[in-house]
Automatic annotation (TrEMBL):
GO terms for biological process: aerobic respiration; electron transport coupled proton transport; respiratory electron transport chain. It comes from Leptonema illini DSM 21528. PANTHER family: CYTOCHROME C OXIDASE SUBUNIT 1, CYTOCHROME C OXIDASE SUBUNIT 1 HOMOLOG, BACTEROID. GO terms for cellular component: membrane. This is Cytochrome c oxidase subunit I. Pfam families: COX1. GO terms for molecular function: cytochrome-c oxidase activity; heme binding. InterPro entries: Cyt_c_oxase-like_su1_dom, Cyt_c_oxase-like_su1_sf, Cyt_C_Oxase_1, Cyt_c_Oxase_su1_BS.
Length: 469
């Protein structure tokens, strides 16, 4: 209880709030994802009738992963690293606390609304208009605190992490607001201001940049801060990191149309999205190579330091997923794989490997320093790192193979020249063929959540217990 009292009195209480938020939403993210995966294997099982049906629970899963777990980790990283990088405290502790409360209220309201069937049907943007407005107001509160801290800084030089944070803070509310422009008809129902291919184009401009400016850009900022801090060595090349930032954000904002290849979207728009998506491989790999070159200053730490191990896992999966994303934007590859399980594997390799790797490293780094005690068990953290790697690898490998199988089977569709119709597939037979891969996915999810339980236990013993004998 004394440790809890010290946390409440901490001058950076907003940081502690976002750490608790990340742990809570992270747990719900994993539980909902594993439940949805099991639902595909045992479709007759009902958790709560219509309220947690597959469609609603899957929406809850994506919502709490993106706007719950990932965003709360980013906010925690910003509140922790900015004071050190700018040599000043955060602009307003009170604004920070308001930010924590508003943020969790919006994410919770969205989660409950999806269970009730209130959903505007846009990927990563399912919340209805009252919650969208609340989200923007919350972001304004955060932005005032963020830019206020920059205004009172004592360190004039911007380390590269601040640039990546700036990209996150400025871009997310703009694309969120533009994509969610709608005409309300009731308190819980609205219709998009756009229609047809325009609506689709704007949605995937937002959807892809949600990946870019939530799951990528700010996490790169966290990588550039926590890797050098943990190994006590500067980033290999600050010049590389600045080139990485500006080229990444320039290429990313044009890449959204690759989600709409072979659609009614104008051909030149599709080709523009494809070209910029392929070029994204250059800044993406430049940044990660900068990270690996930084690590050469302390490469032996990979053997015994679980935080460094998590960062290596994250960077490795980032290399794979960025290459994969660029390849999937090529029309011939996209035609075979885009609507298959391969896309699910692509997203989860990034989520379970890249995002979770950075997030867990950050949690293991921050929490012991907040309570001024060593981590309860480095061995448990090391076990967690290996379980995370195994889970991410098994998940991605199984669903990659499942996607290849789906694409191959779909490509064998027969065409009846007399009726001028496709001869339909036996979808039940297809599901049976792919069941083994989905079983492996569920096993991987269970391994991941077991590792997450180790994280919770380790952090709780660190905060509330004594040092391990």
């Amino acid at each position: 209880m004394q440790a809890f009292a010290r946390l409440r009195q901490h001058p950076n209480l907003p940081l502690i709030g976002f750490l608790f938020s990340a742990i809570f939403w992270g747990g719900l993210s994993g539980f909902s994802g594993l439940s949805v995966a099991m639902k595909l294997l045992i479709p007759g099982v009902e958790l709560a009738g219509e309220y947690l049906s597959f469609g609603r629970f899957r929406t809850i899963h994506t919502h709490v992963v993106l706007l719950g777990f990932a965003v709360s980790i980013i906010f925690a990283g910003i509140y922790h690293s900015m004071p050190a990088l700018l040599r000043t405290s955060m602009y307003s502790r009170k604004l920070g606390l308001i930010h924590v409360i508003m943020y969790n209220a919006v994410v919770l309201a969205g989660t409950v609304s999806f269970a009730l069937g209130i959903n505007q049907g846009k990927e990563y943007a399912e919340m209805e208009w009252p919650f969208d407005i609340a989200f923007i107001v919350m972001w304004i509160v955060f932005a005032v605190n963020f830019f206020g801290t920059i205004a009172i800084r004592k360190e004039k030089h911007f380390y590269v992490s601040i640039w990546f944070y700036l990209g996150f803070v400025v871009t997310v509310p703009i694309m969120f607001a533009i994509n969610n422009l709608a005409v309300p008809v009731t308190l819980w129902k609205s219709y998009s201001l756009y229609a047809g291919s325009t609506d689709a184009n704007i949605q995937w401009w937002y959807g892809h940049n949600g990946v870019a400016f939530i799951l990528t850009t700010p996490f790169l900022g966290l990588l550039y801060y926590y890797l050098p801090k943990q190994i006590q060595s500067p980033v290999y090349s600050h010049r590389f990191s600045i080139i990485h930032f500006w080229s990444l954000i320039f290429f990313y904002v044009w890449a959204g149309p690759h989600h709409l290849l072979y659609s009614p979207l104008p051909e030149w728009v599709q080709m523009l999205g494809m070209a910029f998506s392929v070029m994204l491989i250059l800044p993406s790999w430049l940044g990660i190579f900068n990270g690996f070159l930084t690590l050469t200053h302390a490469k032996r730490r990979v053997v015994y330091d679980p935080i460094v191990k998590f960062i290596v896992i994250a960077m490795s999966f980032y290399l794979v997923t960025t290459m994969e994303g660029s390849l999937l934007a090529i029309k011939s590859i996209n035609a075979r794989l885009h609507y298959t399980d391969w896309m699910i594997a692509h997203v989860h390799a990034g989520g379970l490997g890249w995002v979770s790797g950075i997030s867990f490293a950050m949690l293991y780094y921050i929490v012991p320093r907040l309570v001024k005690k060593p981590l309860y068990s480095m061995e448990l953290a090391d076990t967690h790192a290996w379980m995370t790697f195994l889970a991410a690898f098994l998940y991605a490998a199984a669903i990659w193979l499942s996607g290849i199988g789906e694409g191959t089977i779909w490509s064998t569709l027969s065409y009846d020249r007399e009726t001028k119709q496709l001869i339909p597939l036996n979808w039940g037979h297809l599901a049976e063929l792919l069941a083994i891969f989905r079983q492996v996915r569920s096993i991987a999810g269970a391994i991941f959540m077991t590792g997450y339980a180790l994280l919770l236990y380790n952090l709780m013993r660190t905060v509330f217990g004594g040092e391990r004998d």
